[in-house]
Amino acid sequence: MIRVRDLALIPLAILAANALADTFSARVVAITDGDTITVLDANKQQHKIRFNGIDAPESRQPFGTRSTQNLARYVGLAQITDGMAWWFRRYADEQTAEDRGRYESAENEARLQRRGLWRDTEPVPPWERRRTRSKT
């Protein structure tokens, strides 16, 4: 099991828009929600990191708090496996074919097993909630 304090030891890779990766070591200083963390690099600059390939419930959505707590234990794909995030298909083209398959399979399995947010009768993906909120 990975805890927040352990995440500080993991080098983080950030995928650039052109699919080239820049890698740096940093310490996790905050978990914003189920798909976003804030890290502090060696120069003491903060960076907001959003995990590629997932979209977790917003903090005020059902399972939002639990998703954030779960991220403190795990990262990325594990969020989907535990039913604490959706596979964010909108950015699937930024993933390898292998990762796309794993993420889709993990979401399908979580849905079938009714894990986490899939216990809700009609879970609302965060991108739909954001769209609805912006219209009001």
Describe the structure using short key phrases.
136 residues, alpha+beta, OB fold (Dihydrolipoamide Acetyltransferase, E2P), 3-stranded antiparallel beta sheet, two-stranded antiparallel ribbon, 5 helices, 7 strands, globular, disordered N terminus
Number of strands: 7
Q: Which architecture does the CATH hierarchy give at level 2? A: Beta Barrel
Strand residues, percent: 15-25%
What are the secondary-structure elements, in order, as H or E? HEEEEEEHHEHH
CATH fold label: OB fold (Dihydrolipoamide Acetyltransferase, E2P)
- Unreliable runs, pLDDT <50, ≥5 residues? 1-20
Structural class label:
alpha+beta
Give a verbal description of the structure:
The chain has 136 residues and is of the alpha+beta class. The chain has a single domain, classed as OB fold (Dihydrolipoamide Acetyltransferase, E2P). It is 34% helix and 23% strand. It has helices at 4-7, 64-73, 77-81, 97-113, 126-135; strands at residues 12-15, 21-24, 26-33, 36-41, 46-50, 54-55, 86-87. The strands form three sheets. The protein has a three-stranded antiparallel beta sheet. A hairpin with a 5-residue loop joins strand 1 (12-15) and strand 2. The model is unreliable at 1-20 (pLDDT under 50).
